[in-house]
Amino acid sequence: MCGKSHKLVGDGAKMKISLWSPASRQPSMEAATAPEVASSGSTLKVKETSPADAEGPPASPRQEAGSPIPQLLSPIEEHPKIWLPRALRQTYIRKVGDTVNLLIPFQGKPKPQATWTHDGCALDASRVSVCNGERDSILFIREAQRADSGRYQLSLRLGELEATATIDILVIERPGPPQSIKLVDVWGSNATLEWTPPQDTGNTALLGYTVQKADTKSGLWFTVLERYHRTSFTVSNLIVGNSYAFRVFAENQCGLSETAPITADLAHIQKAATLCKTGGFAQRDFSEAPKFTQPLADCTTVMGYDTQLFCCVRASPKPKIIWLKNKMDIQGNPKYRALTHLGICSLEIRKPGPFDGGIYTCKAVNPLGEASVDCRVDVRAPH
């Protein structure tokens, strides 16, 4: 409101006249334009206002005359927006006992009101701490538990404007062991196993199973296979003569289960029995009558020098050897020595004299027959 005053001064009297300008008491307002949508990771909401709300109720004459002018809210200089880090745009995975410390930057001027929720409910102040600054908000969990898993939402409110961002947190731990394991069958050097999945997978999907074996002699465990997805397996190439026990671990992103069930029965790998089939096999008969394979040879010897006669005979069973001189049996005569070894027959004539010449015969006799060979021996006088 503005006005002008003029003073008129005259003789013995003073007059004061005030003039008022016709300016209006109602302030003028501009309609707010729609703000830009926040970048990736946040959503901006605007509450629409009607023209009647924008104009406001008409001023009363009393308000025009003496009431003070109503104060306006601070203008919005910067729309609320949440800058969600790229690593938090997918599921944020932590292990049980780890610390969760998330810093989420945002913008907005004047400072917006930041609010966190967990699966649509207010945060548990005994477990989760929140610190809101001028340009960021921090969510802090000292020791994460599986119950802390879920969807967390950050909301920024500035007047009628609102921006939101969601973060999925998954807290995992090692899986429980398979419930049971059973030795189904053993044959040759193979053993078949079956087991049941664990009741607790550690709040995440299993990566598979690890199968191990141990023989009773050493008691050491050796891994047969890793990250196997089925619940049955046949272990091969087991050593003959050993006995084996087996166990199975479950595995997820945190590692193997702390314990593993062991088969109650041992797998005994036995040596296969060798059977000799004799039926239908004809035994060969090696029996035969005597037969000379090498005959006696005629010879001339010198009087007084020992002489030997040789021949070879084959027969089964072993034949009886008889030596003859001029068809007379000479066995037992000390002048002659007869030997037989491996079918070779020999006769030694010791220091023959002029009467030792003649026809010598070797006869072989067994139950299947007989055979004989002859030779002529001449004895001459020394020169």
From TrEMBL:
Occurrences of domain Fibronectin type-III (ranges): 177-272
Major site of localization recorded for this protein: cytoplasm
Residue ranges annotated for the Ig-like domain, each copy included: 290-374
Region named Disordered: 20-72
Stored SUPFAM superfamilies: Fibronectin type III, Immunoglobulin
Gene3D superfamilies to which the protein is assigned, alphabetical: Immunoglobulins
Keywords from the UniProt entry: Cytoplasm, Disulfide bond, Immunoglobulin domain, Methylation, Phosphoprotein, Repeat
Any one Gene Ontology cellular component term annotated for this protein: myofilament
Compartment(s) where it occurs, according to its Swiss-Prot or TrEMBL record: Cytoplasm, Myofibril, Sarcomere
CDD domains registered for this protein in UniProt: FN3
Pfam families: fn3 (PF00041), I-set (PF07679)
PANTHER family recorded: MYOSIN-BINDING PROTEIN H, TITIN
Described function: Myosin-binding protein which plays a role in cardiac function. Seems to regulate conduction in the atria and ventricular conduction systems.
Family: Belongs to the immunoglobulin superfamily. MyBP family.
Name this protein carries in UniProt: Myosin-binding protein H-like
Phylogenetic lineage: Eukaryota, Metazoa, Chordata, Craniata, Vertebrata
